[in-house]
Amino acid sequence: MEKRQQLYAGKAKSVYATDDADYVVLSFRDDTSAFDGEKVEQLNRKGEVNNKFNAFIMQTLSGAGIATHFEKLLNETESLVKRMQMIPVECVVRNVASGSLVRRLGVEDGMSLTPPVFEFFLKNDALHDPMVNEYHIATFGWATEAQVQKMKQLTFEVNTVLKQLFADAGMILVDYKLEFGIFGGEVILGDEFSPDGCRLWDAQTRKKLDKDRFRQGLGGVIEAYEEVAKRIGVTL
Ligand code: C5P
């Protein structure tokens, strides 16, 4: 497999073509951004930590029967993934109220949510990723009804697997964001799962172990990511 030209550079990852049309290289950079790219910093080791963290999670999900784009780790900061047609919506599940839910609805931060809340957001930085519903997705043709149902089903299946994984390691999976794409006509999990795209709190102290440390200027961002990785058994 040969790495070819860069196809796309996002805020934290870049995508490169390969000599196989069905695969691309996902390259995890140290760039860390928040607030739709308004706050950007380089955090030493983040690319490597997130690449290995994501590989571990994707393999765990795959072992639980959830199809993902992940193929294999290539090196410290790069993974080989299936080239998908991305669906431009983000799927968020919340087990505990925090972040934008608290700002929008005025509910208490830390309130346990039963049943968990599911939300769709449009992937669009210029519009600040507005919340959308299934009617918007159908009307504007971002996904079919069957694809919407599949994304919801898979996002909740991920919740079952990962809530337990983190609970066993003394953490609460507060919320997370997933992105899906289409490969061979099927909806499969894409993008990444790392502390950049979820909230994780220590179960005892409720210490934040995720990107909120960066957003809120709490410091110790990578140290927290490494601690989570260590607790769940990721080899760094
Ligand atoms: O900001 P909000 O509370 O809506 O975020 C919910 C979850 O989705 C958080 O875990 C956050 O890190 C993640 N998220 C993300 N990328 C976005 C928006 C939210 O990873 N563009």
From TrEMBL:
Residues 6-231 form the SAICAR synthetase/ADE2 N-terminal domain. Keywords: ATP-binding, Ligase, Nucleotide-binding, Purine biosynthesis. Its EC number is 6.3.2.6. It is an enzyme of class 6 (ligase). GO terms for molecular function: ATP binding; phosphoribosylaminoimidazolesuccinocarboxamide synthase activity. It catalyses: 5-amino-1-(5-phospho-D-ribosyl)imidazole-4-carboxylate + L-aspartate + ATP = (2S)-2-[5-amino-1-(5-phospho-beta-D-ribosyl)imidazole-4-carboxamido]succinate + ADP + phosphate + 2 H(+). One of its GO terms (cellular component) is cytosol. Pathway: Purine metabolism; IMP biosynthesis via de novo pathway; 5-amino-1-(5-phospho-D-ribosyl)imidazole-4-carboxamide from 5-amino-1-(5-phospho-D-ribosyl)imidazole-4-carboxylate: step 1/2. GO terms for biological process: 'de novo' IMP biosynthetic process; cobalamin biosynthetic process. CDD domains: SAICAR_synt_PurC. Pfam families: SAICAR_synt. NCBIfam families: purC. Belongs to the SAICAR synthetase family. HAMAP family: SAICAR_synth. This is Phosphoribosylaminoimidazole-succinocarboxamide synthase. It comes from Methylophaga frappieri (strain ATCC BAA-2434 / DSM 25690 / JAM7).
